[in-house]
Amino acid sequence: MALDDAALDVLFRNARTQWEFADEPVTDDDLRAIYELAKLGPTSANSSPARFLFVRGPEAKERLKASLSLGNIEKVLAAPVTVVIAYDPHFYLKLPQLYPASDVKGWFSANPDLAEETAFRNSTLQGAYFMQAARALGFACGPMSGFDRAKLDRAFFFQNSWKSNFLLNLGRPKDVELPPRLPRLGFDEAAQFA
User: Per the database record, which ranges form the Nitroreductase domain (predicted)?
Assistant: First the structure.
């Protein structure tokens, strides 16, 4: 069943990166609802390596601030929540639970380069699923890089092995006029048939 035009507008056509948010909190229940949708997206061998850190409150934001590039500080401090889309490089330890039909843990435990590549690629996918789930539930998103990954990881992930991938500011949309959408490549510029 295809989505109607209204849903496609919410998810794609009218969806924009947003840096200003309504003065409304993003609750724990909101974040759980987003995650419950996002977790359903496919990953390699159902590996699900993404991990999500929800940064709210002045103390946590201050810790995050130290790793941000100057152009991102105000954006992060103004957002109701900033989600650190991260990944667990040892995601394969959960594969007996996530992929019980076959023993695939050894694919990754015996090949650290493959494990790292798989974790980064699939956590990126899961971050995109999270963003689309948030949009589907009425939230606005501001994804970004522009931070020192090593510094962030030292500040937040010193007790586990998680590694940051990208950041996502999240909140209810603020009724502001956004600048025109930047150009996108046409089909013939970005695609080809084999």
Answer: 16-171
> What's the number of CA atoms in the CB half-sphere (13 Å) around residue 59?
1
Q: How far apart are CA 39 and CA 129, in angstroms?
A: 8
> Which residue type does 63 have?
R
Residues 38 and 34: their CA atoms lie apart, in Å, by 6
Average pLDDT, the chain: 96
Kindly calculate the radius of gyration of the chain based on its CA atoms and give it in whole angstroms: 18
For the question of whether the overall pTM of this predicted structure is more than 0.85, the answer is: yes
Q: Identify the CA nearest to 75 among candidates 129, 130, 146.
A: 146
Q: Model confidence over 70-122: pLDDT tens digits?
A: 999 999 999 999 999 999 999 999 999 999 999 999 999 999 999 999 999 99
d(CA 31, CA 16): 20
CATH of domain 19-174: 3.40.109.10
Cα gap 77→152, rounded to integer Å: 15
Measured distance CA(55)–CA(115) in Å, rounded = 27
Q: Tokens at residue 110, please?
A: 């015996």
CB 155 within 8 A of CB 67: yes
Instruction: Report the b/e string of 150-176 with b at 16+ CB within 10 A.
Output: eebbebbbeeeebbbbbbbbbbbbeee
